[in-house]
Design goal:
single chain; 197 residues; mainly alpha; 70% helix; 0% strand; globular
Length: 197
């Protein structure tokens, strides 16, 4: 899952939400001298969500829908596409309007600037410039984001043309998402209840 999903799955606790954002930018064991314990719990929740997602039968079925050479990048593509699905129908999953939720997340990152690694500070600038994560509801914004990721990868890749493939499989991918996301949400709730402090 991508940023919108990770923050939504962290619930209403802003420290868990911050950890959800940090999960892709902090590697190895989070330093207890740098991060509050609830932020570390949020980083661990992010990682638990990723492990659950990668092994889920519906996600594996969605990956299998993508033809070569896109299948090799299916993890990235589905993370982004599922955030698109979430953003497009956000009112089904959250009572707060998507634009407000998105602005609140960017505000959270600004308030805790001192805890952000340089890479997340740079990404926050990209979020602000493109109205993310709400912008992911727009396929054009998603396509630009995928092309940008492709440019940052070290080897040649087809991410700049991946949006067309995702759109071509939209109905089947939506079915997989509809089966998967409620189960992921329940997993995250249970994880927070047990491990979230």
């Amino acid at each position: 899952m991508n940023h919108l999903a990770h923050v939504l799955l962290a619930g209403d606790d802003e420290w868990l939400q911050l950890g959800g954002m940090l999960g892709d930018f902090v590697h190895g064991q989070p330093d207890a001298a740098l991060f509050p314990s609830r932020v570390i719990a949020g980083i661990r929740l992010h990682r638990a969500i990723d492990v659950y997602t990668d092994a889920h039968p519906e996600v594996l079925a969605a990956k299998a829908l993508l033809p070569p050479p896109y299948r090799r990048y299916a993890g990235i593509l589905l993370d982004m596409w599922f955030d698109h699905c979430l953003a497009r129908d956000f009112s089904r999953w959250c009572v707060q309007p998507l634009a407000d939720y998105s602005a609140a997340l960017r505000g959270l990152l600004r308030r805790h600037d001192g805890l952000l690694p340089p890479a997340l500070r740079r990404f926050r600038g990209y979020m602000e410039a493109h109205g993310l994560p709400a912008g992911y509801a727009d396929p054009a914004v998603l396509g630009d984001a995928l092309a940008g990721i492709g440019q940052r990868l070290s080897r040649a890749n087809p991410l700049d043309s991946a949006l067309l493939v995702l759109v071509a499989h939209e109905a089947l991918l939506q079915e997989r998402f509809e089966m998967f996301f409620p189960q992921l949400r329940e997993f995250a709730r249970e994880w927070v209840a047990v491990h979230g402090g």
